[in-house]
Amino acid sequence: MASSDGLQYRALYEYHKDREEDLALCPGDVLTVSRAALLSSPNYKDGDERNPQGWLHGVNERTKERGDFPGTYVEYLGPARIASTASKARPRPLPLPPAGTPAPWGLAGQAELTEHPALPEQALPTVARLIEALEKQGLDSEVLYRSGPGVLGDAELKQALLADASAVDMDLYEAQTLADALKWYLQELPTPLIPPALYSDLVHMAQETPGLEECGQRARALLAPPALPQAQALLLRQLGRHFCRLCQGGQRSRPSARLLGELFGELLLRPAAASTEGGPELRARILESFIMASEAAELLTAPGKRCLAGGRGGTVDVTFRAVTVASHGTVSVAGAVKRRC
Fold it and tell me: Which element (helix H / strand E) includes 338?
């Protein structure tokens, strides 16, 4: 098996396998594709390597699984060295991006119009692996994330996360250690997740917006490309989904959006050096409102690819309630709709 040129992409959307040969994707996953296989495709057009419009065949670097995935679900990262394998073109219609996917999170190849320091390339897959390992353990710890900001006593784990997180066996660590590792890793990022200029806009918006619901909607609009770089937006969305699952969990000790805002507010919302804009209370409120708005959006815009029951050609009754965001951080939904599969 010879070494050859390859290309790497980053997943923008979640993709569930439709066929056995497909490759499941989570936002932030890094995919490696053979350049030769892409260029030899009968449907190849100039520029497809940077803005792929068909099905690609490659390896998910997070799961190490190989398979097909839609090129419209990823963005181009750059060249890479890979072990070449033969792959055949599979003419199939491409799926549409998830129904209701908010446009502000950006599309493949969208230009970032503002200049900010880039996140390390491994930041997205590292955070994704930490979150995946945490959620695999059930999130039932009563002290999860309650430790001080950026505290991680395991020096070996620190070094491994910074060097090559893909080689870390996350199953060796208990939930609290993984939670501490996630907070520590976010604090150690060489560039703030939310740029100082955008932080200033968030503070001014929150000071002028008394309602949590409106504050959350406006925060989501501000924290979107091109104002927020694509990589930061994807990482923030990963964290937002994780926070939503924490709030929605069945454990009695599950944290509220308010508590998560207090625990992560100063970690994710950092003012510029020497700035006194927005104190801890305001930062906690901004993040609390963002989590609540994200939770409501996830409930209403979940991808509609699969029917919940009834099989193909039938109808399914999906019960939901009009979204209500209460001041204590709960989200409820009501009403009903019949959907044809």
Answer: strand 331-340
- Helix 175-188 / helix 155-164 crossing angle, nearest 10 deg: 60
> Are the C-beta atoms of 34 and 6 separated by less than 8 Å?
yes
Two tokens, residue 171? 């199953």
CA 102 to each of CA 93, 111, 326: distance values in angstroms, whole numbers, following the listed order? 23, 17, 23
Spatial contact of 325 and 293, defined as CB atoms under 8 Å apart: yes
280 vs 99: which has the higher pLDDT: 280
Among the ranges given (41-45, 222-226, 333-337), the one the predictor scored with the smallest mean pLDDT: 333-337
Instruction: Say how far apart CA 256 and CA 248 lie, in whole Å.
Output: 9
Q: How many Å apart are CA 135 and CA 191, to the nearest integer? A: 26
Q: Output DSSP code: residue 118.
A: P
Tokens of 281: 């209370």
Buried b (16+ CB within 10 A) or exposed e, 229-264: bbbbbbbbbbbbbbbbbbbeeeeeebbbbbbbbbbb
Q: How far apart are CA 194 and CA 233, in angstroms?
A: 9
Say whether 58 sits in a helix, a strand or coil.
strand
Supply the mean pLDDT for the chain: 74
Query: In Å, what is the CA distance from 221 to each residue of 64, 106, 165, 253, 272?
Result: 34, 12, 31, 31, 21
Distance, CA of 241 to CA of 213 (rounded, Å): 17
Paired tokens of 56: 């690609």
Whether this model's pTM surpasses 0.70? no
Tokens of 265: 């507010």
